[in-house]
Write the structure tokens for this entry.
Amino acid sequence: MIGKLNHVAIAVPDLSMAIKLYEGTLGAIVGEPQDEPNHGVTVVFINLPNTKIELLHPLGSNSPIEKFLEKNPAGGIHHVCYEVADIISAREKLISNGAHILGNGEPKIGAHGNPVLFLHPKDFNGCLIELEEIKGDH
Ligand code: CO
């Protein structure tokens, strides 16, 4: 059911420091910060030849990243995102297998303009999983 690894998201306590690290020290191509108020995050995309890295920084109050950074003050891997061809059929299959969908269970539009869902980490070895619907790439 899952396809390509779309991105790995890393929560960072200091966005400009993290940009310098990826651009300067690691020599990656780093995009401009994008505010995603619906998700409570500022996102920076880093394009690698085979996947993407997303740097996540809290935006506004009650950001989901805020709590994560309280537990992980230096930052850390926040979630991995796998591509699916049909997010609703993926969701139905997951629910029938006992997995829990976060939030109200309905897909939201993610940072790339595609529908996304998040799966509860307790069902997946402590790893928060994002599913992103990518049409016509499977
Ligand atoms: Co993501």
In short: Residues 105 and 117 are 7 Å apart (CA to CA). DSSP finds three helices and nine strands in the chain. The chain has a mean pLDDT of 95. The radius of gyration is 15 Å.
